[in-house]
Every structure is written in C-alpha cells, then in structure tokens.
Amino acid sequence: MPEDTVDKPNTVTCTAPVNIAVIKYWGKRDEELILPINSSLSVTLHQDQLKTTTTVASSRSFQEDRIWLNGKEEDINHPRLQSCLREIRRLARKRRSDGDPSVDATTLSHKVHICSVNNFPTAAGLASSAAGFACLVYTLARVFGVEGELSGIARQGSGSACRSMYGGFVQWIMGQRDDGKDSLAQQVEPETHWPELRVLVLVVSIAERKPVGSTSGMQTSVQTSCLLKHRAESVVPGRMEQMIEAVHEKDFSTFAELTMKDSNQFHATCLDTYPPIFYLNSVSRQVISLVHQYNRHYGETRVAYTFDAGPNAVIYTLQEHVAEFIQVVQHFFPPETNGGQFIKGLPVRPAVVSQELKQAIGLEPMPKGISYIISTKAGPGPRVVEDPDQHLLGSDGLPKRDI
Amino acid sequence: MPEDTVDKPNTVTCTAPVNIAVIKYWGKRDEELILPINSSLSVTLHQDQLKTTTTVASSRSFQEDRIWLNGKEEDINHPRLQSCLREIRRLARKRRSDGDPSVDATTLSHKVHICSVNNFPTAAGLASSAAGFACLVYTLARVFGVEGELSGIARQGSGSACRSMYGGFVQWIMGQRDDGKDSLAQQVEPETHWPELRVLVLVVSIAERKPVGSTSGMQTSVQTSCLLKHRAESVVPGRMEQMIEAVHEKDFSTFAELTMKDSNQFHATCLDTYPPIFYLNSVSRQVISLVHQYNRHYGETRVAYTFDAGPNAVIYTLQEHVAEFIQVVQHFFPPETNGGQFIKGLPVRPAVVSQELKQAIGLEPMPKGISYIISTKAGPGPRVVEDPDQHLLGSDGLPKRDI
C-alpha cells in the first residue's frame, strides 16, 4: 500500500430518498429480521426536496465504528445499525471469497465513521428512518465495494428503508422464507413513468401529544388487533395487484381511491389495537374531509390523502390540480401571516378558488393548522455524490464544522 | 257499548329505557326488516335517569293516526313508525282471530294518537330512538291488548330498540331467517344481577361537526368496509360468548376489556368505511387515554369506556371506584364554574385524587370538554304508568299544555 494513502480515509458520500407508502406496511412477522406480515407499495419522493445525505469513511487508523446523526454523535451499538454494518461486511467477505476483485481486502478490517444529515427538519415529523437506513446501506456498500441487491440489508435497518433503495414506484414483496432472503424491494415503474403525478406534504403544526412510535405500535397491533391479521392475510394481496395495475396504467382515480382506503384501513387497525393508537388528529381529519368534499364537488377523484404514523397528510394529485388544491388548503388552513414560506419545493402557480367550491367544501377554517407544504414529485433512488466538497466528514474522519 | 265511553279515548302511558351496547350493532343484512349482520349485547340503563314516556290514546272519534314527539307534531307516515303500527295491529288481529278475548274488536279499527317525551335533552346526543321505539311498541301493545314477545316489532322501528324491551343485560340474537322471525332480544341477566355495576354518561360539549347518522353510516360501512364484514362474521360470535360468560360471572375486568375493544373495533370499521366516518372527537380520544392511564396506574381494569355513533363516552365501572373516577374526570375536564350541576343522577360522594394519580395520568386538562355527567346504573325494562295524571294526552286526545 502506498505510503500516502495509509492514513487518508476512504470516503464516500451518497444521498437517498424518502418514500411514502400507498399500500401500508404495519406489522412484523419477525422482529429481528424485520419481515412484514404483508407486502407494501410506495412512491419514492424526489431528493431535490427531501433526502438524507450520508458520508462513510473507513481507515485503518480509526479505533472504532462511530456515527453522527444531524450533527450529534449517537450510539453505534443500536441493534439495527449493527445489523446493517454486520450484513454489509458479511456480504463483502463473501464476495471477496467468491473472488470479486472490487472488494478491497484491507478495507474489510477497517472501522468506519458515519455522518448523516437530512435536508428537512426532524420537526417536520416525516419518517426519516427509511431514507436514513437506505442511505447508510447504499454508502457502506460503496465503501466496501459491494454491489447488487441491497434492499434486504436496508430492510434490516428499518423495514420501509428497503423501498427507498429504488426510485419511482416500488413494492416491498413480503416473501415467505423464514430467513427473509425473499423479502425484498422491487421497482414497479421508474420515476419517469408518470410525470404528471405530484406529491404535497402537508406538515401539520398541532402536535396534540407525542404519538406511539411505529416499532412498538406495530408490535402491539400484531399482538392485539384481529382486524390487522385479516387485513394482512385477506385484504392487502388483492390491493397490491390492483395498485400495481393502476400504476402501470397511470389510472389516477383507482390509484387515489386505493391509497385513501388503505391509509384509512391502516389507521383503523391502529384503533382496533389495544390500547388503541391514534395518529390522526383534528387537523388530519379536517384534511380528510376537505379532500372528500373537493372530489365530490368535481364528481371525480382528483386528490388523495395518505397518513403514516403521525398527523401529517401526504397528498397525491395530478399536476393540473396542484395550484387550485393548494389554494383550497390555504383557504381552509390560513397560514401564519408573519411566518416563513408556506409552500416549499416545486414552484406552484397562483390560482383562484371559486366561491362555489369554497361553499361546496363548507368546512370551518382552522387557522395555522398546517405550518407549511412541501411540493414535490416522484424521484430516483440513492445516488453517489461525486464532488468531494460534499463529504460530511473531513480528511481527519470527523464531521466538518458546518454540519 | 255504554254511551259515556263512546268518545272517551282508551289511553295508556308507559315508560321505556335507554340501552348502551357493550358488543356493538353496526350494519344491517336487511334494511326493511332491520336484520343485523351480527348479534349484540347491551346494558339497559335505569329509567330514574334516562327514559322515554309515551302515551297512546285510541278512539273511534280520531280521524287519523297522529304523533307528537317532545311537544312537536311529526309525520306519522315515517316508514319505521308505520312498520310498528302495522305489525302491532296485525298481531292484534291474529290474536283476535285465534280467539284471545283480551283483544278488543272495536279498538282494532280505531285510529291512535301518540305522544312521546324524553326526560333528557336531545342535545345530550344520546340515541333516543331505542327508548322511543321500545316505548311506542310497548304502549301500543297494551292499547290493542297484545301480549308476549314484542322485541321483533320494536326492532322494526329501530334495531337497538329491541334491546330496550328488557331490563338488565340483554342480547339481540341476530337470527338466521330471511323473514327475521328469529332476530329477537333476550334477557341475559336481570338488572338485579350485578348491583355494584355503575354507568356514567359523559356528555361531551364540543360538537366538532354534525356526524353521519347511524342509518346511512352503517349502510355505507356494509357497502365499503371489508373489516366490518370480517368483524361481523369472525370476531363478534366469539365476543358474544365471552361477554355473556363475563356477565354471568360478574367478571368486571373481562367485561370491561371486551367493552373497550368492541367499541374501538366498531369505530375502526367506521374509519375503514369509504369515505371514512369519524364519531370520536378530541374529547373522546382524551377520555380513552384517561381511562387507559387510570387503569394502568392501578394495574387493573377498573373502568371501561364505550362510544356509540357520537362523541359522548359511556363509562362502566364498579360502585367502589365511581367517586374517585368522577373526581379524576373533573380534574382533567374542568367544568364551567358558573354552569349548572356537573353531576346528575345517582348521588356521588366527594373524593380526593392523589397527586400521584394525577401525575400518572399526565394529560393536559381540557376545560369544558365535558358539559355534565349522568350517574346511573342498570335498570328494568318498559313499565306501564298506572297514574292517569301522568298521561301526556288529555281526554280530548291532544297533548296536554305543559309538555
């Protein structure tokens, strides 16, 4: 090994996207391997608006594995983090013993430093673990020279992270095997397939109380909800087929109705959990009413909502309806006038909402119920960042000052 | 017929109770006959606190059937009202033709005047149709000299009315026949069986919006919720057995847990309905949290909640816990200080809530979230009121002035 590379870490930086499920994942059949009780399907959001950036450096001079998340050092011994590190290293060893020359024998024994940041505030309440673990696994794989199917490893960090390993429309096939080898993500269509599709993240400002975390929430649901069992076994398989067909056909109304029904059914199984779990608050319920009244007014399904384990609404609609719908949201959730930008992300043209439409919706406005909207669309999967200036770790292997 | 009785109406007054289901009825398999998709079980509440009083007068001088509800004349042609009138008259004719001397041949051809009032405000949001139709059918039966099984007729007025035909603990057996002849209520245990059981109706003051009515709500649920179908077919039969056993054994913790789970599952199926139906509001959800935190603090299930098609909570508990639990409710839902009585009904002794318990519950108080509490218990079925001064109709067959 040349003298000058001895102490300079091998550094790789990648980005990975958030994904929002339209057929929901809720409940594990294996807690350790993170194997789900049903398949799920999501849309990968564009990284221009929402992404995680992760730098991994490896060096023989590092004494131990370390991790910094959003500027703060965290415990590297978190079991799921350890699962990902262990599985990537195992895969690298296997590839080397299989004779793959791209796996660097020395790197394998090196410790790593990991640094990860999100380009969106944690306060936004967006599940960042999917993007985070996808980015971690994708970056580690490049450091250790591992290629190929990685969603099975990302899955072991956070179930839904496996879907963030691909762009566009992605299904997570639940699989049947006990070892989880067939529980993998697969791209249904790329992000270029349906360019008219738009996504609006409505960030809800009222936190009525800290909700139950999804890990413990889904455990309790699996243990206590008989409706969840029925959903997983008898409802989701048919919905997966219909949803894949709707995506292939770009059939918005089927896509939208299934999305809303599946979100509602997921929250129904939370309510059937004992003690019950509530993720929707009064703003969420108002958004649901608004969407149904809006669609009813037009006599067609133009807009769909979906909610994960929190009160934020994610809206799917088509480009042609974005401007008016955002104006409707602004009317019924008047934003703080002295606050920052209400609409972030993709530009939205101004629009006028007719009195007739306002009256048809007929809800009592909830001032400041929504703090801001992120306007985005489907996007690509994880990417390598080639520019070394973008590394989050310096040549000393520690986070750069400005993170 | 003696001259002096020619124009004097035959007048009968009865009272009937409200009932609150612990295994919920939601969904009909026959809209006309009101046949449910599952059996249900309820507790009949004591009429000292909540009752309907109905006077029926019949006279050959009446030109047509008429009805007054809570002081206002209503349309007698309401289909469900017509069902009850038709079925009672049919039963009377059948009995007369079978040779029953108690059926007065002349009364059968007479028109009736009906007058009905509740001793609780409609604004309380308590489903009054069960008590109302039970009382109507019970009173009509006495006017026409009909005896025996009447719950099948009350059922055709309002499904849950059949359960108000008996006191104590009552099941409505769904039946299997297409003609509904086996879809009847049956007493499981009389009101004297479990004297320690207490009922608190928490009347919620915040009406976020007018909820979907139960008739159309359950129609939509039957049409759109796959979870409801599963519940009716595969969950409720087992729960009915467990609940009947818990009532027989006076096993409060089983009774209470099943009650809460079944309420939650009913509301889960409402959320799985498309478009979704919400009956629980933020006060309801706060009561749910409070009950679970309260029980958790004591390490046993001392209190249970149940919610019908509205935000009001009905609490089941044992006499020994009433005073403290009410004090807890008053602490977390501070009542209006200048308002009327906060606790109505059965007297409740004062109690002190420990700081420890308040901290264990740890919720943010919601001032004026609950307007008042009705304290009551299980009670008897419909009764005839013998005192003619209590008749709601005067000797002219019209409502008395003071109703």
TrEMBL record, chains A, B:
The keyword Thylakoid does not apply. The keyword DNA-binding does not apply. It is an enzyme of class 4 (lyase). Residues 381-403 are annotated as: Disordered. Pathway: Steroid biosynthesis; cholesterol biosynthesis. Residues 16-185 form the Diphosphomevalonate decarboxylase-like N-terminal domain. SUPFAM superfamilies: GHMP Kinase, C-terminal domain, Ribosomal protein S5 domain 2-like. Residues 199-385 form the Mvd1 C-terminal domain. It catalyses: (R)-5-diphosphomevalonate + ATP = isopentenyl diphosphate + ADP + phosphate + CO2. Gene3D superfamilies: 3.30.230.10, GHMP kinase, C-terminal domain. Keywords: ATP-binding, Cholesterol biosynthesis, Cholesterol metabolism, Lipid biosynthesis, Lipid metabolism, Lyase, Nucleotide-binding, Steroid biosynthesis, Steroid metabolism, Sterol biosynthesis, Sterol metabolism. It comes from the Eukaryota. Its EC number is 4.1.1.33. InterPro entries: GHMP_kinase_C_sf (IPR036554), Mev_decarb (IPR005935), Mev_diP_decarb (IPR029765), MVD-like_N (IPR053859), Mvd1_C (IPR041431), Ribosomal_Su5_D2-typ_SF (IPR020568), Ribsml_uS5_D2-typ_fold_subgr (IPR014721). GO terms for molecular function: ATP binding; diphosphomevalonate decarboxylase activity. GO terms for biological process: cholesterol biosynthetic process; isopentenyl diphosphate biosynthetic process, mevalonate pathway. GO terms for cellular component: cytosol. Catalyzes the ATP dependent decarboxylation of (R)-5-diphosphomevalonate to form isopentenyl diphosphate (IPP). Functions in the mevalonate (MVA) pathway leading to isopentenyl diphosphate (IPP), a key precursor for the biosynthesis of isoprenoids and sterol synthesis. Belongs to the diphosphomevalonate decarboxylase family. This is Diphosphomevalonate decarboxylase. It comes from Myripristis murdjan (pinecone soldierfish). The lineage of its organism: Eukaryota, Metazoa, Chordata, Craniata, Vertebrata.
